[in-house]
Amino acid sequence: MTLFEQILAARGLDGAARDLFLSPSYDMGHDPFLLPDMSAGVDRLVSAREDQERVVIYGDYDIDGLTATTILVDALGSFGFEYVDTFIPNRFVEGYGMTVGAVEKIAKTGANLILTVDCGSLSHEPITRAKELGIDVVVTDHHNVAKEQPPAVAVINPKRWLDEFPDEFENYVLKADSPKRGEIYPFLDLPGVGVAFKLIQALQTRLDGLEPGHEKWLLDLVALGTVCDVVTLQDENRMHAYWGLEVLKKTRRPGLRALMAVAGVEPELVNARSLGFALGPRMNAAGRLETAKYAQDMLLSDNGETALELAQQLDEMNAARRAEQDSILSEALVVAANYENDPVLVVSGKGWNHGIIGIVAAKLLEKFSKPTYVLEEMDDEAKGSARSYGDFSAADAIRASDDIITKGGGHKLAAGVTLPVENIDAFRARVNEYYRSLKLESQIEHLYPKEDAVCLFGDVTEELVGQLASLEPFGNGNPDPVLRTNGVTVLSRRTMGAEAQHVKYTFRDAAGATMDHIAFSKADEYTYEIGEVVDVWYEPTLNEWRGRRSVEGRLWRMSISDC
């Protein structure tokens, strides 16, 4: 068995499952009408098209919401809707999700129908207000749901099936022997843009204007939203991302072409890493610092020059975002020192831009290996973002604090919360109490990559690196392949970077083969010296420098060897 075959086997990929994973078929997509309320939502939109009603797409300011909004604008235009507008809430004005104030603003425009994307499942009060104002609402969302649905015409959210039939699913996938197969949607971890795309597919069965197959041109944005929202890249999500990357390589959108240009991404080489670390942060920067409308305008622009100007503006915002992020992180590290014994870290401070603190939470989680909530104190109110890992759900901990917060929700690994400043200490106590009640074990292991195979350096070839590329796109649920080599000797160590934050090692394995490895931002953690014998976990990569190609490792973990 070759090393590549070992890696496939470690991921449970053999036979038909292997073939489908390596070459996802577009035809593997599921019937959109198996989603809850899809028929009711389609009926209402068909009626709106017949009467040419005014439709407002109510989006969200993150990439998932922006991409979902954009594909619906495109599709409704193709279907012949004449009056379609968008409303992207401002993080610093309306805040997250639907609000009564935003609904009242929309009502003044004469809208007849609000179509939400990536929000709305918990928006009982705003949707009730819309109904009072004579506006119908169709919700498309993928976040946690309420036991009782808001008074919308339709709430199209795959998570409703998980709430109603929890025993029928495992890791968001319908069990093979479920009696509900063919009755309910079999994959529940769609992002908001994925749910919006399924709505478009459903509308294609009732409306003319977007011929079957032509919806594939929307997959560039579906891939962008799917990868950046960090849903599991399995089942339908993998297929959407796989084919979406192919569409992105030849995208017709001036905005995406401009964004790739300013980010230094070559279209023919675009991959999931490009989306998550180059395109995504630039688009998110607008909503984090000012308004996401800049990013939306770029996506919707049909003028190359205008699109480039907007892309350059996003690039500048992203640079400003990084500087502000570093400042907040420095202050948060000082606060964190006061709570070193807490299993869940909750820190807060004044003037911490709540558009950025989610990234700071991720940085603190990485440093302290703890689920983290970071809150901005604003007069009497605090707004925060959470990042988690393993078996601790950031959203469930927020729900366990319902009596002391104003509002909150989100996902297992990322969530948001608003609460009175005076309740921050109580909230800290509550989420830590909730963590301890779970009696979780070995959580730190969730932060370490699991090796796909154990090998010697001589087995890691250019051919293998090429084969591993066929497993793209990588992300949540389909991590980058990691190899482990035991008992290697440190031959050299040198730091790199403006602040000597990176470290590069040369190792020699038991067979005498050598290989370079680099660890980014780990120079303080990896301090093994020449002559020490260690085990290393790494992602094999291809390094090209001055016409020379060599295989090296991106180092993820190292420890003293038992060999």
- Whole-number tally of structural domains: 3
Overall, the morphology is globular
β-sheet strand percentage: 15-25%
What does the largest sheet look like? 5 strands, parallel
Structure, explained:
The chain has three domains: 28-213, inorganic pyrophosphatase (n-terminal core) (Alpha-Beta Complex); 340-446, Diaminopimelate Epimerase, Chain A, domain 1 (Roll); 453-560, Beta Barrel (OB fold (Dihydrolipoamide Acetyltransferase, E2P)), CATH 2.40.50.460. 38% of the residues lie in helices and 20% in strands. It contains 18 helices and 18 strands. Strand 1 (55-58), helix 4 and strand 2 form a beta-alpha-beta unit. Helix 5 (100-107) packs parallel to helix 6.
Question: What features would you highlight for this structure?
Answer:
3 domains, 5-stranded mixed beta sheet, 563 residues, OB fold (Dihydrolipoamide Acetyltransferase, E2P), single chain, alpha/beta, inorganic pyrophosphatase (n-terminal core), 18 helices, 5-stranded parallel beta sheet, Diaminopimelate Epimerase, Chain A, domain 1
